[in-house]
Design brief:
Blueprint: H1 2-29, H2 32-38, E1 39-48, H3 55-60, E2 74-78, E3 81-88, E4 93-102, E5 105-113, E6 116-120, E7 123-124, E8 136-137, E9 140-143, E10 156-160
Parallel strand pairs: 1-5, 6-10
Antiparallel strand pairs: 2-3, 3-4, 4-5, 6-9, 7-8
Helix pairs in contact: 1-2
Length: 161
């Protein structure tokens, strides 16, 4: 039974990663029709970085002059989020996207530029029968690896899932 549950979870993660890979493929081809099918019409978008680096927003809103190309060097599916990371050598820009996918539709994206991102899993580890406050654990489950290529110090952000 546990093996079936694990294989189902692994398949779900693979499917979500494939949805995110399809977003990048559609972006590279400027395929607006596919992007509209994959992204929720009311997608929630968070941005962390300089306003001049809002490349994804400009691509998604049809800016014909936007030349930035998102080429993920790593796509990782975790429980609840798919992370994609890339680096633009010419501009010395590292980026990370954290995508939320539900029923093969992207409902949220969190975008980080020139930021070191660490993802932690937030969970309660305390004994609920104890009279004291429950303890919590936040193990690191993913960390960006490309922000070091920028050649300067970058801010660090923790994303708890």
């Amino acid at each position: 039974m546990k093996a079936n549950l694990r294989s189902t979870e692994a398949l779900e993660k693979e499917n979500k990663a494939a949805v995110v890979a399809a977003v990048y493929e559609a972006l590279s081809c400027r395929d607006a029709e596919t992007i509209q099918k994959i992204l929720a019409p009311d997608i929630e978008w968070w941005f962390h970085g300089p306003p001049s680096h809002q490349f994804l927003m400009r691509l998604l809103t049809g800016d014909e002059n936007e030349t930035f190309r998102f080429v993920p060097q790593r796509i990782s599916a975790l429980e609840g989020v798919v992370l994609a990371e890339g680096f633009d050598q010419h501009r010395s820009i590292a980026w990370v996207h954290a995508w939320t996918v539900s029923d093969s539709i992207v409902t949220q994206v969190k975008e980080y530029f020139n930021t070191s991102l660490t993802v932690t899993r937030f969970r309660n580890t305390g004994d609920s029968s104890s009279s004291s406050s429950p303890s919590h654990s936040c193990p690191s489950v993913w960390a960006s690896s490309l922000s070091g290529r920028i050649g300067k110090s970058v801010p660090g952000v923790v994303l708890a899932i």
